[in-house]
Each structure stands twice: as C-alpha cells, then as structure tokens.
C-alpha cells in the first residue's frame, strides 16, 4: 500500500513539472512571437514543438544522466547523446515543415520570423534541454551530498557510541582498582586498631561518594577533582605517618574549568603504590596550575638509584586510553625517570575538547 507521504511527494513532483512545462510553453510563444502579431500561429507552432522538447528532455534527464553520466559510463553517454540529438533534430525539422505546410500554407513569408530558420528551433529546444539537465544534475548532486552527510553522521554516531562504550568499560576497570587500593589501606588501620580509623572511614565515604555519583558525569569541576585528590592524600598520610614526605602545590585554580573525572588520581595512586622509601622517607611532590583553559599537572615520587620502576598497572594503562579518547591531540603526557625520581607531567587544553563520556 502506497503511503500518504509518497502520494504527496508524487503530486508535488507532478505539479512542479506541470508548472515548468507551462512556463516553457509561454516562453516559446513569447520567443517565436517576436516581430509578429499572429498569436494563433505562434501558439500552435509552440504547442506542436512541445512534445519534441519534452521527449528530448526526459530522455536526457531520466535515462542518459542517471544511467550513464552519473555512473561514469561516459562513452555510452556520449553515444546515446548523439542518437538523441539526431532523433530530436529530425522531429525539430518536422516541426519546421509543420509551420510551413499547415500553418502558413506553404508561404514562407507567412511564417513567423523566428520560425523561418531551423537554427532558432534548435536553439530554443536545446536551451530548454540544457536548463532541465542542469536542474536535474543539481538535484542529483544535492541528494548525493545529503546522503553522504547522513552516512557521515551515522558513522560519527557509531564511532561516538563505541568511544562511550570503551570509556565506560575503562571506568568499570578503574573503579574496582581504586576501591581495592583504598580498602587495603583501611584494612591495615583496622588491624592496628588505630584511633584514626573513624576519620579514615569518613574520608573513604567522601571518596566513594565522588566515585559513585560524580565520575559518571561527562565533566566535573576541576576543584572537585582537586578535593578528591586531597581526600585521598589525607588517607595516605594516615597510613604512612612520619614516613611520608609530601608537598602539594595547587595554584591559580580556574573555577570555570571542567575536566573528565578521575584523570589525576591514578597518577597519585601510583606514586604511593610504587614510590620507594629512601632514608626512611617516601617523598612525593605534586603541583597543578592553570593558565586560561590550560592545565599543567606534575607529580614525582622517590625511587632507589638503579631500581627502575615502570609504574605499570590497570590504572595508568586506562588513564592513557581515556586521555587519548577524551582529549585526543589536546593533551600531552610525559613519563620519565632519573636516578632518584619517577616523574609524570600532564598538560591539558580544555577549551576545545569534547568529552565523549556519558
């Protein structure tokens, strides 16, 4: 069953074509009526020429262009154009004799001036064919462009969904990893029956609240991410006590900057997990500063000379993938080591970055 929309489209197309050919008919009447007052002769002649024009036009627009030109079958297109030209020229000549024999009774002087030469008939007919073909090609080009754009949008949408799924999968890995590290710390305090255990549980509660309710957002305030880091560091301070030598320098924090959640904490976690105690001290130094929409984050932890540690793990591996997906070319991550320090530097430009997370 034909849908209502299809019927309406066909009616609209029929109406447009009817209007076009009506305009052509009156255009012929005006063109061939130049320098004559015999309107009946001119209109009859124009009416007789219309089937030739219509047939030639639809042959080109409905057969030659879509079947040969659009499909780049140029040799056949050229060949059939020649055939069409010969056949149409034959009927145009017949139109000339129609005007001479039937409309002017074989009196050449009785013909309208613009119909006395087949040349003007060829010009009129092929001009209409040219205009109709140009409109047809423009329509094909528009449909092709629209279809290509729709296909591109579908591809981009599919890529976006894949990125969202991959990022969600990476988050699912990060969450247990983070929770496992934190619960290990809390477990150690519980074994020691430390008086700081209630405060530690409170800090852990804050961390879990951020983890469960904030990290699923596409973007969070940079200050929230910093608060999350500070809560984590507070927990680690309770665990390491006097062994920990840590300095934190957060400056020029732009309250309007938003970042993807859980970006910095894996580096902080790895510094505590893989940092090495030298002279009874685990040294960790981190800094974060903002300049316009740019973020500069760095963290380093002490390591024993000659005891290289690659800091490999689920958290770091995932954060590299998340940075590549969410920030693309708008970030720079550098990880290096010297004899005494493992150093991480992260640069983010948040101005033109699209977060793909959901």
Task: Summarize this entry quickly.
The protein is an alpha+beta fold and about 350 residues long. The chain has 8 helices and 7 strands; from the N terminus they run αααααβαββαββαββ.
SSE blueprint:
Blueprint: H1 4-32, H2 39-69, H3 74-103, H4 118-192, H5 197-213, E1 220-221, H6 222-240, E2 244-251, E3 258-259, H7 265-274, E4 282-291, E5 294-302, H8 314-326, E6 331-337, E7 341-349
Parallel strand pairs: 2-4
Antiparallel strand pairs: 1-3, 4-5, 5-7, 6-7
Helix pairs in contact: 1-2, 2-3, 2-4, 3-4, 4-5, 4-6, 4-8, 5-6, 6-7
Structure overview:
With 358 residues, this protein is an alpha+beta fold. It folds into two domains: 4-116; 154-349, Heat Shock Protein 90. 63% of the residues lie in helices and 13% in strands. The chain has eight helices and seven strands. Strand 4 and strand 5 (294-302) form a beta hairpin. Helix 5 (197-213) packs antiparallel against helix 6. It starts with a helix and ends in a 9-residue tail after the last strand. The mean pLDDT is 85.
Structure keywords:
two-stranded antiparallel ribbon; 5-stranded mixed β-sheet; Heat Shock Protein 90; 2 domains
CATH class of the largest domain: Alpha Beta
Whole-number tally of structural domains: 2
Main sheet: strand order: 2-4-5-7-6
CATH superfamily of the largest domain: Histidine kinase-like ATPase, C-terminal domain
Please compute the radius of gyration using only Cα atoms. Answer: 40 Å
Mean pLDDT: 85
What's the story with the biggest beta sheet? 5 strands, mixed
Q: How much strand?
A: 5-15%
What string gives the helices and strands in order?
Answer: HHHHHEHEEHEEHEE
User: What is the CA–CA distance across the termini?
Assistant: 42 Å
The CATH topology assignment of the largest domain is Heat Shock Protein 90
The beta-strand count equals 7
InterPro entries: Bact_2-comp_sensor_kinase (IPR050640), HATPase_C_sf (IPR036890), Sig_transdc_His_kin_internal (IPR010559)
Organism: Aquimarina litoralis
Protein name: Histidine kinase
GO molecular function: kinase activity
């Amino acid at each position: 069953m034909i849908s209502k929309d299809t019927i309406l489209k066909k009616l609209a197309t029929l109406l447009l074509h009817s209007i076009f050919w009506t305009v052509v008919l009156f255009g012929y009447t005006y063109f061939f009526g130049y320098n004559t007052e015999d309107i009946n002769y001119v209109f009859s002649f124009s009416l007789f020429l219309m089937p030739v024009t219509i047939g030639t036009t639809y042959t080109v627009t409905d057969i030659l262009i879509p079947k040969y030109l659009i499909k780049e079958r140029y040799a056949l297109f050229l060949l059939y154009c020649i055939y069409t030209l010969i056949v149409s020229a034959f009927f145009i000549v017949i139109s000339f004799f129609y005007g001479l024999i039937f409309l002017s009774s074989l009196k050449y002087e009785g013909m309208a001036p613009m119909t006395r030469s087949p040349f003007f008939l060829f010009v009129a007919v092929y001009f209409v064919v040219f205009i109709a073909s140009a409109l047809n090609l423009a329509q094909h080009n528009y449909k092709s462009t629209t279809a290509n754009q729709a296909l591109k949008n579908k591809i981009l949408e599919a890529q976006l969904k894949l990125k969202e799924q991959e990022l969600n999968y990476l988050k699912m890995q990060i969450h247990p990893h983070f929770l496992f590290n934190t619960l290990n710390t809390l477990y150690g305090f519980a074994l020691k029956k430390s008086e700081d255990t209630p405060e530690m549980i409170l800090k852990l509660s804050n961390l879990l609240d951020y983890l469960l309710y904030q990290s699923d957002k596409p973007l969070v305030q940079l200050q929230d991410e910093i608060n999350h880091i500070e809560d984590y560091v507070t927990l680690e301070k309770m665990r390491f006590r006097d062994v920990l030598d840590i300095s934190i320098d957060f400056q020029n924090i732009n309250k309007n900057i938003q970042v993807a959640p859980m970006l910095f904490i894996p580096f902080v976690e790895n510094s505590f997990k893989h940092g090495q105690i030298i002279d009874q001290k685990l040294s960790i130094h981190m800094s974060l500063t903002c300049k316009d929409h740019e973020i500069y984050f760095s963290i380093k932890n002490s390591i024993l000379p000659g005891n290289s540690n690659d800091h490999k793990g689920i958290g770091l591996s995932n954060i590299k993938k998340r940075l590549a997906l969410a920030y693309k070319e708008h970030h720079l991550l550098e990880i290096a080591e010297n004899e005494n320090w493992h150093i991480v530097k992260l640069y983010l430009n948040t101005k033109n970055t699209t977060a793909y997370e959901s």
